[in-house]
Amino acid sequence: MKRTRIDFAPRSLRRTLFRTPPHLIFLVPAVLLVCVPAVLNSQRYAEQQQELKDLQGALAVRSAPPAVVVAASSPKVALAPAEANAINAAVLQLNLPWRDLGAALDAATPPSIALLALEPDAKRRTVRISAEARTSDEMLAYITRLEAEEWFSSVVLVRHEVMEQDPNRPLRFQVSVQWGAP
Amino acid sequence: MRRPDLQRFGHTLRLGVAANGMALVKTSRLFGRAPVLLAEQRLDLFAPDALALGLRALFADRPPAGWTLSVVLADDLTRLWQVTPPPGATRMGDLEGAATLRFQHLFGASGAEWTIRADWDAAKPFLAAAVPLNLLDGLTLAAREHRFHLVQAEPQLVASLNRWRRARRPGAWFGQVAGGVLSLVACDGARLAAVRSSPIPPGADRGWLDAHVTREALRVGVDLPERLQLCGAAPAAWGSSVGRLAFACSLLEQDADDGWSDLARLARTGVRA
Asked: Can you tell me the ipTM of this complex?
């Protein structure tokens, strides 16, 4: 038979608790035994889910194609053609292989030849050498030695003259030397 | 900080209130211990301030502050009746209206001075009960004054029905003997047919019971039951199996004569002895 629910007591929390079957209190340890591990496990599960999400995010970032880095465009400076040519000429001049040129000339110039001037032309990769020799044989020997240098591709005697006003009468000459292609 | 009272854990107080007195019983809800009679107070409940004075005397030696307290009201202080729900009742108001009309029809009083509660059911007849408003107000004031928690207040027959509900058999009538009154819950199969109360004459034997039950069945208009299940202080001679008699009568409380007074028995109604 079902319970006859007739009660004149005022409604209250105490009344509700009183109506709860008292033997249910013995279920409290069992409920705690189930609920506490369930709560702890759910918390751990949530933490692991968060860690997994973080890891997946990191992996996604790592495996994504590298982003195109757009370099900040430097402000364009408008140059006149003359200025541009001058800058290019200066750059070529600065890029002149002085070390190799000097080494080749040192190797080819004997003590009997006096170097007076070197006029390099970076654009044409040539250098005009002004020098003095006591005799024409020494001059020719010098030209021959210059030609023997591997670094120079062509050697041309541009002009020569005997310095009459000098008591030793040296032979002054100019040689145009071109060095090899880079 | 107030320390918890371990004495209260798993225990509750039960107060029996009758027209001729009150009794206080301590019961164990959790550990199945037998109820203990704490105090008994004889009085005339209809005297002015009788309830408040009686409760003060009852609680003089053992303040009930903090305890939960159930009240069992003697059936002569309450009204119990059967209500058939009106056909097509869909709202609670329909059932409440039907219960109030039936109360006025049966007892000839308006429901203004009574509080009506029922085991509401829109599909089949249900039991309703009414308690005087001033009695409930007195109990509520006493709960405030003595600082106990009033968690239950029910008529004695309702307490008995709930106490023995697992022992009840389908179709059997249920009866309660208390304070020299026999209350019968007449059933027609599983359907509640009526609730009737009658004083038991001195020296009433099984023959009187047979005649009384037969008369009540005729009055209610239902068949005689195959079995009557009785609780309370029923005479042992009433208990018998069916034979030459019209119906079997089983006594649910074998130890009816256990030395407890009517008031104490009232207070412990609904609790396993």
From this structure: 0.87
Contacts of residue B119 in chain A, CB cutoff 8 Å? 4-6
Mind listing the pLDDT tens digit for each residue in A108-133? 888 888 888 888 887 788 888 999 99
Taking an 8 Å cut-off on Cβ atoms, the answer to whether B168 and A1 are in contact is: yes
> Per this entry, what is the length of chain B?
273
With an 8 Å Cβ cutoff, are B118 and A1 in contact?
no
Distance, CA of B51 to CA of B131 (rounded, Å): 15
pTM of the model: 0.65
Task: Compute φ and ψ for A168, nearest 5 degrees.
Answer: -85, -10
Exposure b/e, B192-218, CB count within 10 A at least 16 = b: bbbbbeeebeeebeeeebbebbeebbe
Q: Name the residue among B127, B131, B136 with its Cβ closest to that of A4.
A: B127
Distance CA B30, CA B122 (A): 35
| Chain A interface mutation, best of B151, B173, B174, highest count of A Cβ atoms under 10 Å | B151
